[in-house]
């Protein structure tokens, strides 16, 4: 494996809009909100940015194709701007583009901005969209909850977990995220709920009920990155740097070859192994301080915690129920509320996760600030379905640590 | 092959009746306020297509019932008789042939226009078989729509049957056939109309049915030199209840020879019905029985068969009507009305997503989409669907080694599933999941025909050809295969489709 980019790029500034049903705001407005905060945080001006990456997923229902909407909304100074779309992992892909541009020396300062306007469809849930000309002719007519729900059926059989026990662990995940989200002023959903509410909620896709599914939100997040040296030269001394970014994309094995049992993410295991190597992590359960995972559905979070090699395979139910991932547990997961409560504006989500790790590491997370030493923070951003997806895992920490 | 004038007969037979049943008592009760004369129909139930079934899908299932898993290479023609094929312009029988993976050299004909389209298709199939000395598949299939509160709504049903005919006596030797064409308009359906328009029943029976059908029947008996008293079974649909008894009496055919009109659990299936009754008759026929099949519609057709000893072996496969009639599930009257398009439903904005089919992509992928053909790697033997240039086996990855591998006759097991209340389906929730095939390969498939037990991880599934999506904007139906449970309360179809 290549040597990687450990500590070659640092975050200069970040911003994040309020997530939620932003009836009054366009995608452009949301970008401006996130970018304005990032720019102020970085202490630079737009003219200082050498290149930008823009992530949005459902452009059909919002801004249309290309990077032009971002370049125009932010009045970027005729620089290279690239639009990236890798389903729900798009935000991390924008970050990766900006980080790699800096790491390569092609840019001194680069911008990643992700934005999504989902509430212009007229109905709840993600927008209906084409799965491609051929796929729609033969593949099951599945929705996101229906494809992720299948993890539960396969996991339950593989690990001989009672349906009720699994449902209870899933409920615990959602209750915990609502508790965390209630402390986050930018979160979409800030109400606390109890386990019974989750378990008795209307079914969306068996066994996922309403509270097993994340919020569908409008929002934007942005990161400005540079080298640690430039950051220091600009007066930044408390830095968060990138320890590693890895992406793994399904190649059809899960969907077509009987070697995958449907209970986990093949991609996440590949990406996690590689990112730990890039970051120099050998014992993730001991070395990680907090994680932000792609909890589009409660069951996704549960199996992901095994795929990231934090819980042993088959042990996530126990770890979750014992509070290992709660705010006061050993590794808080979704301390900002996660996709579940912070919300899930697709193109922004990967950047929103990084934003939270960044705030926590700098001690700027307000009421939800973790009061312990934070070494490594991990974000996991997933696009697609369990049987075919894009999985990105990022590790952040202080330079040299 | 046999000489052009040689003996021909039915070689194989099969049928299909959709699983859904509507209680006639429920229809009568719902419409009593509007049409009190329906009261006498408050008995048993009628069959009705699921939202994803039509004349083509039923014909494919009936044909598979007839063909079993025997090699199909010797079938060189397909006739489809129906007055309700899904396409006015597109060869419906061609879709059937493609779904059955019959070769491109297969000749296909749609026969339509009257309620004897099924028997006319069978007559034509015999003519083709005799003239060319080849085996021909003939299917009758019907999915008539009926106005709310009409007699047709309670009297009709949906079903299909199929026969392989060809040289040799087979299981039932064709002794003779006859036809008459008379422009007697008992009912009609003009272009653009949804429903048949009917004239008075008594006139239809007395001036039409009881005068025109005998002309064909008497001709066929005379040609064959068989007396009316020698007819063991008379398979003739009823335009009105008990008309076939009156017909038998007029023809001096024994009253107990009149075949069950399959009113219970099914109903009159129009152009398919005479053939459906023939399939049912073959299920219980004894060698030597003479079976007379007749149908009425702008004239009449009559075919006389003599059952051969080969019937015993043919029956062992379990083909025919009885098992489909035994497989039943309740369909409430409102749900039937929704599936039949008789009411305007609020289906939500998600239903508005464009279902346009790229015909270019369909054509490129027709083996997959019609015939459920995947691939088998010539190097490592891994099976996969769809077929791709590069083998999916992570330990192989060979290029351009995939040989065509049909999957439709494989059974699969559910690896993972969900019941989805969010995605659009005319029959929520949408059940689907990953189906793993025993010889190898897997596919994320829509499920259909679930019984009360629904599905679980490990449930054994059979493949069934269905409507994948309707495109209401353009009037197009696209087809693919779905997975349905094989056994238990869901089907009782165990084993029949096992390769």
Structure description:
- The complex is a heterodimer of chains A (401) and B (499).
- Chain A has 401 residues and is of the alpha/beta class.
- Helices cover 36% and strands 18% of the residues of chain A.
- Chain A is built from 15 helices and eleven strands.
- Chain A has helices spanning 27-42, 68-73, 90-104, 135-138, 144-158, 163-181, 195-199, 228-233, 253-256, 266-279, 284-287, 298-307, 316-321, 338-341, 346-362; strands at 10-16, 51-55, 81-84, 109-116, 203-205, 208-209, 219-226, 241-249, 288-292, 376-385, 388-397.
- In chain A, the strands form three sheets. Chain A has a five-stranded mixed sheet with strand order 1-7-4-2-3. In chain A, strands 8-11-10-9 form a four-stranded mixed sheet, with helices on both faces. A two-stranded antiparallel sheet of chain A has the order 5-6.
- Chain A is globular.
- The two termini of chain A are 22 Å apart.
- With 499 residues, chain B is an alpha+beta fold.
- Chain B folds into two domains: 8-339, Peroxisomal Thiolase, Chain A, domain 1 (3-Layer(aba) Sandwich); 358-372 and 407-490, OB fold (Dihydrolipoamide Acetyltransferase, E2P) (Beta Barrel).
- Chain B has 13 helices and 22 strands.
- Chain B has a nine-stranded mixed sheet, with helices on both faces. A five-stranded antiparallel sheet of chain B has the order 20-19-18-21-22.
- In chain B, β19 and β20 (442-446) form a beta hairpin.
- Chain B is globular, with a radius of gyration of 23 Å.
């Amino acid at each position: 494996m290549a040597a990687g980019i450990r500590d070659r790029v640092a975050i200069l500034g970040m911003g994040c809009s309020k997530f939620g049903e932003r009836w009054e705001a366009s995608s452009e407005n949301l970008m401006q909100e996130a970018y304005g905060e990032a720019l102020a945080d970085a202490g630079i001006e737009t003219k200082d940015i050498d290149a930008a990456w823009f992530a949005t997923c459902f452009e059909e229902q919002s801004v249309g194709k290309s990077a032009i909407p971002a370049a125009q909304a932010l009045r970027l100074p005729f620089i290279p701007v690239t639009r990236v779309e890798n389903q729900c992992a798009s935000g991390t892909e924008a970050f990766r583009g900006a980080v790699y541009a800096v790491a390569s020396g092609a840019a001194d300062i680069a911008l990643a901005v992700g934005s999504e306007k989902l509430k212009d469809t007229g109905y709840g849930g993600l927008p209906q969209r084409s799965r491609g000309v051929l796929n729609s002719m033969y593949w099951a007519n599945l929705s996101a909850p229906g494809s992720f729900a299948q993890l539960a059926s396969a996991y339950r059989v593989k690990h001989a977990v009672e349906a009720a026990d699994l449902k209870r662990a899933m409920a615990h995940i959602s209750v915990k995220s609502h508790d965390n989200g209630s402390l986050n002023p930018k979160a979409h959903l800030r109400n606390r709920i109890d386990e019974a509410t989750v378990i008795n909620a209307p079914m969306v896709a068996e066994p996922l009920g309403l509270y097993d599914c994340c919020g569908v939100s409008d929002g934007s997040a942005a990161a400005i990155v540079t080298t640690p040296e430039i950051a220091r030269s600009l007066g930044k001394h408390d830095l968060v740097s990138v320890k590693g970014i890895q992406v793994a994309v399904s190649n059809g094995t899960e969907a077509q070859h009987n070697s995958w049992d449907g209970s986990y993410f093949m991609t996440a295991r590949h990406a996690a192994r590689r990112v730990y190597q890039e970051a120099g992590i050998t014992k993730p359960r001991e070395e990680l301080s907090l994680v932000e995972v792609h909890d589009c559905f409660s069951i996704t979070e549960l199996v992901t915690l095994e795929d990231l090699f934090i819980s042993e395979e088959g042990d996530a139910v126990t770890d979750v129920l014992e509070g290992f991932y709660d705010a006061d547990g050993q590794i808080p997961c979704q301390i900002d509320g996660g996709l579940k409560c912070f919300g899930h504006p697709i193109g922004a989500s990967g950047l929103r996760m990084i934003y939270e790790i960044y705030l926590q590491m700098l001690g700027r997370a307000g009421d939800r600030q973790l009061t312990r030493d934070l070494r490594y923070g991990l974000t996991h951003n997933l696009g697609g379905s369990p049987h075919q997806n894009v999985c990105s895992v990022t590790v952040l920490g202080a330079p040299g640590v | 092959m046999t000489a052009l004038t040689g003996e021909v007969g039915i070689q194989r037979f099969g049928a299909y009746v959709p699983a859904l049943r509507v209680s006639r008592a429920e229809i009568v009760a719902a419409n009593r306020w509007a049409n009190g004369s329906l009261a006498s129909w408050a008995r048993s139930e009628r069959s009705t297509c699921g939202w994803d079934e039509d004349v083509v899908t039923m014909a494919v299932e009936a044909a598979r019932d007839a063909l079993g898993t025997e090699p199909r290479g010797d079938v060189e023609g397909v006739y489809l008789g129906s007055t309700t094929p899904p396409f006015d312009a597109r060869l419906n029988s061609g879709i059937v042939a493609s779904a059955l993976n019959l070769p491109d050299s297969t000749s296909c004909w749609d026969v339509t226009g009257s309620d004897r389209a099924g028997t006319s298709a069978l007559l034509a199939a015999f003519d083709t078989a005799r003239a060319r000395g080849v085996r021909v598949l003939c299917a009758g299939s019907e999915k008539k729509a009926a106005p709310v509160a009409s007699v047709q709504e309670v009297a009709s049903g949906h079903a299909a049957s199929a026969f392989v005919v060809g040289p040799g006596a087979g299981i039932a030797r064709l002794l003779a056939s006859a036809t008459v064409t008379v422009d007697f308009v008992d009912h009609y359906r003009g272009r653009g109309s949804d429903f048949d328009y009917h004239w008075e029943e008594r006139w239809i029976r007395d001036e039409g049915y009881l005068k025109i059908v005998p002309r064909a029947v008497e001709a066929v008996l005379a040609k064959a030199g068989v007396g009316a008293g020698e007819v063991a079974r008379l398979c003739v649909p009823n335009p009105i209840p008990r008309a076939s008894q009156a017909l038998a009496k007029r023809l001096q055919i024994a009253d107990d020879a009149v075949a069950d009109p399959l009113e219970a659990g099914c109903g009159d299936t129009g152009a398919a019905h005479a053939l459906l009754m023939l399939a049912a008759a073959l299920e219980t026929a004894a060698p030597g029985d003479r079976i007379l099949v007749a149908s009425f519609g702008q004239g009449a057709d009559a075919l006389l068969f003599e059952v051969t000893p080969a019937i015993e072996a043919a029956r062992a496969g379990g083909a025919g009507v009885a098992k489909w009639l035994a497989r039943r599930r309740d369909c409430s009257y409102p749900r039937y009305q929704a599936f039949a398009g008789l009411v305007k439903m609020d289906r939500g904005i998600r239903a508005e997503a464009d279902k346009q089919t790229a015909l270019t992509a369909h054509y490129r992928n027709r083996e997959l989409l019609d015939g459920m053909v995947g691939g088998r790697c010539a190097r490592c033997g891994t099976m996969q669907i769809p077929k791709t240039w590069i083998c999916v086996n992570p330990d192989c990855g060979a290029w351009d080694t995939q040989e065509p591998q049909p999957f439709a006759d494989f059974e699969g097991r559910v690896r993972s599933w969900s019941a989805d209340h969010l995605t659009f389906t005319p029959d929520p929730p949408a059940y689907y999941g990953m189906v793993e095939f025993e010889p190898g390969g897997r596919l994320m498939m829509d499920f259909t025909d679930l019984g009360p037990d629904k599905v679980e991880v490990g449930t054994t599934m059979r493949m069934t050809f269905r409507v994948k999506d309707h495109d209401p904007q353009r009037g197009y139906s696209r087809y693919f295969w779905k997975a349905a449970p094989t056994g238990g309360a869901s089907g009782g179809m165990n084993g029949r489709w096992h390769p």
